[in-house]
Amino acid sequence: MAKAVPKAVIWDFGNVIVRWDPRTLYSKIFPDPAERDRFLRQVCTMAWHAPTDCGVAFTDNCRSLIEQHPQHEAAIWAWRDRWGEMFSGAIPETEAAIEALHARGVAQYGLSNISHETLEATMAMSPAFARLNGVIASGLEGVMKPGREIFQLACDRYGLTPGETLFVDDGARNIETARAMGFDVHHFTDPAALRPALEVRGLI
């Protein structure tokens, strides 16, 4: 028996709809790649950043880190003040896919680990965001991927059934959680593979 066509698609934001990488900014601050990588590995780490994605203010998170690394004060504040420079544009393949799904009347939603402080600016980076029927942002909800709570929240708020919903994300752990909950999943690692993944499901 052929698998049913998904009734909805949930999109991650960073590195699925828009390209995001702290190195894009910090390559300007630390021209030496080794110095840059050491800073991102030991100072402004993803583990340190995570609380901002769960609702902690950028200012508070930066101040606490500056107390530990006062010699890097300017570079740490750049994480807040030059956040937009970590982005390098939208991903055309995803934008095209979102437009194609919209034209076919497929319900689409966003599910992102993102600060409430940067949500609006991020969604202004591509007209594709305006095609989403709703957005779950971790910074507004206080729960994050890969935890099950945020996926369940999306289902409850928008009336979604995991088995009838395709989840697209670049994070392996997020994909694992979604798959375990019964979602159809596409691990976004190559923009060129997105359209074929939608076509094989009968979405476009």
What is the distance, rounded to the nearest whole angstrom, between the alpha carbons of the first and last residues? 20 Å
Specify the overall morphology: elongated
Number of helices: 11
Strand content: 5-15%
Averaging pLDDT over every residue, what do you get? 97
pLDDT below 50 for ≥5 consecutive residues: which ranges?
none
The H-and-E topology, N to C, reads as EEHHHHHEHEHEHHEHEH
Relative helix content: 40-55%
- CATH topology assignment of the largest domain: Rossmann fold
Side-by-side strand order of the widest sheet: 5-4-1-6-7
Q: Give the strand tally.
A: 7
Write up what this structure looks like.
The chain is α/β, with parallel strands linked by helices and 204 residues long. The protein has two domains: 120 residues, 3-Layer(aba) Sandwich (Rossmann fold); 66 residues. The protein is 46% helix and 15% strand. The chain is built from eleven helices and seven strands. Helix 1 crosses helix 2 and helix 4 runs antiparallel to helix 5. The longest helix has 12 residues. The two termini are 20 Å apart. The model has no long low-confidence stretch (mean pLDDT 97).
Which helices and strands appear, and what pairs or packs with what?
Blueprint: E1 8-11, E2 18-20, H1 22-29, H2 33-42, H3 46-53, H4 58-68, H5 73-81, E3 87-90, H6 92-103, E4 107-112, H7 119-123, E5 134-137, H8 138-141, H9 148-158, E6 165-169, H10 172-180, E7 184-187, H11 194-200
Parallel strand pairs: 1-4, 1-6, 4-5, 6-7
Antiparallel strand pairs: 2-3
Helix pairs in contact: 1-2, 4-5
